[in-house]
Specification:
The protein has about 800 residues and is an alpha+beta fold. Strands 5, 6, 7, 8, 9 and 10 form a 6-stranded antiparallel sheet that branches. Helix 5 crosses helix 7, helix 15 (about 425-445) packs parallel to helix 17 and helix 15 (about 425-445) runs antiparallel to helix 18 (about 520-540). The chain contains 20 helices and 23 strands. It is globular and about 105 Å long.
Length: about 800
């Protein structure tokens, strides 16, 4: 590590990282080959090939850990001479965001994915028993593909992968820079480091990606078991082993997706809890098919039905994980999603990865088609297996609709089309997905009451009587209180209530409130609550920040409205909904300017104000990538109040040096007549240009050229002022005459005029002792959003209980499971 080159780059880190990358790739290939041979040997437990496969996989595991450790050390040591470190970190970032910068880009996220599959593979070495050789052979092939994504080598002029250990001077677009000609250029890099994208500087960034990638990684296990079953022609045994892993994947991937929703809810830039963004969709559709896979495996375990589908759904799920990776990392979604990665030249490699596993799966299914046992009888209409299978098909159809719309950029590129994505994305997807959600909710409502094989209908309807009555009452009251008039939303509300009441009733009456057997019931109750909470909070959200200040905010631009944006001057108290709000001031912490907004209630008799709570929305300053507003939310049991800053002064309140000067550095605005600009305490409108300047008044010569800019300045208390800076040309030199407004602590300079476009440059300087500043804010009430969060927790708990129950049953049934 201590070796350095002439420029002090410490290239030993690069050499070490590259050694680990190559070793991880080579060891994965050796592991795949060894386990392949072990799967074809007749020796007990695969003999020496199995032993070699284990050694190779563990060597691969150590190499992956070595790659991660090297990259982590480089990031935490702020080694900006390396491109990945310079691109995604800087000295001022908090420690947790320095950690998150590890997986901020493609190389780090591929490495995170690889690591989780290393963990799962090592667990399977101890738990897969006789399935170890074919299962680990499949996983090792996947690992070899993932390891190749980090190679960064050129083969016949084609780059294989993107290496995280390249030096900044080796990165495209940097090598010819004059900075790199300096012998000590490394010491000059820290101030230029880009840092983590402001959108990603959120605590969710530290937990959401690791969880999501663990969910992606977990899909490889049921896929590997399905491939192993086809490979070894043991068509009916692998499901017993794969079922707990499938539900583990459902739980972890679902949790990762919901974490992303929580992040989106807390971060203004992502468009709400679920905005149907293409990258959000890309994580959703493999989860939908994985849920279908889990339920079809249950059908086979109970009735030995739907055997072919038990292969199909896990295979589709894993292929969709690869396809979603292609969508988000090829750059093809760049024009439709703010969350997609840019193309690092690996899209072709990802397509090879995708088509390899499609081809492998299709060939194995085709070669085994005639040998896979077929169902000897049709399922009964009122059997649990029939409705579970139908539910899996509905999930597949729902997934297909999302894929087709999300993939519009792909079909455009393939077929040279020019299809436009939906203009109103939420309305479009809701139009399609709400009916699917209603059908699924109804199925999970009565599904557990059905028996496998056939159901005695009289008993079935008797057991559902109470949940139906409670559903009718609860949904009727809810619809009236919510004033819901949309028939589809009303149906979704009814179906959500039915899912909650029916599954809770099933747990109480059939499972006798046994917590150990609550898995399916709790998971379904949680899903019903998620749908109900999403429906209520989004359909009944209310903007309460109606502008009552008496000063219009619409002059700020098209993104501002008096119906949704409230102007609050510092120290003033303004009515907003059921509250009175005060802008109490601001403070700067690191890159953030935090604005303190106090919410008061007012006693109707004494007229005294009582502070209820304070919210602290902020604006994160990032000159390189743009400033980002982050909201602040106060949580009640029945609602959330969500507040964010739409406009505010961004000057540093802690800068004592700037306060000591009379005026701040001027801010120049290019304007034409009628345009508006702003200071921290006023709105400024250029109302006209004055070409008839009184030269005596301004002590000008008759030969001087002079034009005045007539400015109307209105403060936050709606007091209007007029002032006129003058643009003067004397002796072929520009000598502007400034204008000041002492009442507001403002100075104006007319610096330039373009006679062709009639645009002028007005520079505005502010006194550090000027009067109060103001903010423009937006506040939204999300009613009953906690219903959604509660549903998330209950669904995850239910899935966890189901996993535990499946593991216990597998231990009991493994010895007696028949071979098909």
């Amino acid at each position: 590590m201590g070796g350095t080159d002439l420029m002090g780059e410490q290239i030993g880190w690069q050499q070490t990282g590259n050694c680990f990358v190559f070793l991880s790739f080579a060891a994965a290939l050796l592991s795949a080959f060894s386990y392949f041979r072990a799967a074809h040997t007749d020796e007990l437990e695969g003999g020496p090939w199995r032993a070699l496969g284990r050694i190779a996989f563990r060597l691969h595991s150590l190499a992956v850990i070595g790659v991660m450790t090297t990259l982590f050390c480089m990031i935490f040591r702020h080694m900006y001479q390396y491109s990945y470190v310079w691109e995604h970190s800087d000295d001022s970032m908090p420690r947790m965001y320095t950690l998150a910068s590890f997986w901020a880009d493609q190389e780090g996220s591929f490495l995170l994915w690889t690591f989780w599959q290393v963990v799962l593979g090592n667990i399977l070495i101890f738990t897969a028993k006789k399935w170890e050789p074919p299962v680990l052979a499949t996983i090792s092939v996947v690992q070899a593909f993932l390891a190749s994504m980090l190679l960064g080598y050129y083969v016949f002029g084609i780059r294989i992968g993107s290496n995280p250990f390249i030096l900044l001077r080796e990165a495209p677009g940097f090598g010819d820079g004059p900075l790199f000609s300096m012998a000590d250029y490394v010491s000059k890099l820290a101030p230029t480091a880009r840092g983590l994208n402001p959108l990603l500087q959120n605590y969710w960034m530290t937990i959401h990606p690791p969880t999501l990638f663990l969910g992606f990684a977990s899909t490889v296990v049921p896929f590997a078991y399905a491939i192993a079953g086809l490979w070894k022609k043991k068509y009916g045994e692998w499901q017993l082993e794969a079922l707990p892993w499938t539900f583990l994947g459902i739980m972890i991937l679902g949790t990762g997706i919901l974490m992303g929703g929580a992040w989106a809810y807390e971060s203004l830039s992502f468009g709400g809890f679920w905005a149907w963004d293409p990258v959000e969709n890309a994580s959703l559709f493999p989860w939908l098919t994985l849920v279908g896979a889990g339920h079809i495996m249950i059908i086979y375990k109970a009735r030995k039905q739907s055997l072919f589908s038990t292969f199909l759904f896990p295979i589709i799920t894993f292929i969709l994980v690869i396809y979603s990776t292609f969508l988000t990392r090829s750059g093809i979604l760049g024009n439709t999603s703010v969350h997609s990665f840019t193309d690092l030249g690996m899209s072709g490699q990802l397509l090879i990865y995708l088509f390899f596993f499609i081809a492998l799966s299709v060939l194995l299914l085709a070669f085994n088609w005639r040998k896979i046992p077929k169902e000897k009888q049709e399922e009964e209409l009122w059997s649990r297996e029939f409705w579970m299978f139908l539910g899996a098909l509905v999930l597949l159809m729902s997934c297909l609709q999302i894929i087709i719309t999300t993939s519009i950029p792909v079909t455009n590129k393939i077929f040279n089309l020019n299809q436009a994505p939906p203009l109103d994305v939420k309305a479009y997807y809701n139009h399609w997905q709400v009916p699917f959600a209603i059908i699924i909710l109804l199925m999970v409502s009565f599904g557990l009451y059905l028996k496998f094989k056939n159901t005695e209908m009289k008993q079935f309807w008797k057991m559902l009587r109470m949940p139906v009555i409670v559903t009718i009452i609860a949904s009727s009251v809810s619809a009236i209180l919510l004033k819901e008039k949309n028939p589809f939303y009303t149906a979704l509300l009814v179906a959500s209530w039915f899912a909650v009441t029916a599954n809770f009733n099933y747990w109480i009456t059939v499972k006798k409130a046994n917590f150990q057997k609550a898995g399916a019931s709790f998971a379904h109750v949680g899903f019903g609550l998620i749908m109900m909470g999403a429906l209520i909070s989004t359909s009944r959200e209310q903007v309460i920040s109606v502008n009552t200040s008496g000063k219009s905010v619409e002059a700020l631009g098209k993104d501002f409205s008096n119906a949704t944006n409230l102007l609050v001057a510092k120290g003033d108290t303004v009515r907003m909904g059921d509250y009175f709000v005060t802008y109490a001031g601001k403070e700067k912490k690191g890159h953030d300017i935090i604005y303190h907004v106090q919410y008061f209630s007012k006693d109707s008799i004494t007229h005294k104000y009582t502070l209820e709570f304070t919210l602290d929305p902020l604006i994160q300053l990032n000159p390189q990538m743009g400033n980002v507003a982050e909201p602040s939310t106060h949580h009640f049991l029945t609602k959330d109040i969500y507040t964010h800053i739409k406009y505010a002064d961004l000057s540093d309140p802690n800068n004592e040096e700037s306060k000591s000067t009379e005026f701040s550095q001027p801010k120049t605005q290019v304007m034409k007549v009628g345009d508006t600009t702003f200071s921290s305490n006023s709105i400024i409108i250029l109302t006209g240009l004055d070409t008839h300047i009184d030269k005596v008044k301004y002590h000008l010569k008759s030969s001087d050229i002079a034009v005045g800019a007539i400015l109307k300045v209105t403060d936050v208390n709606d007091r209007a002022y007029t002032t006129e800076p003058v643009y003067v040309i004397t002796n072929d030199m520009v000598q502007p005459v400034d204008a000041t407004l002492p009442e507001l602590g403002l100075k104006f300079s007319f610096d330039k005029v373009d006679p062709e476009t009639h645009k002028v440059e007005i520079a505005v300087s502010e006194s550090k002792h000027s009067s109060k500043d103001f903010i423009v804010m937006e506040a939204i009430v999300f009613p009953y959003i906690n219903v959604l969060w509660m549903g998330c927790v209950i669904m995850a708990l239910g899935t966890l209980l189901s996993i535990r129950q499946r593991i216990r049953k597998n231990r009991e049934a493994r010895a007696s499971t028949p071979t098909v």
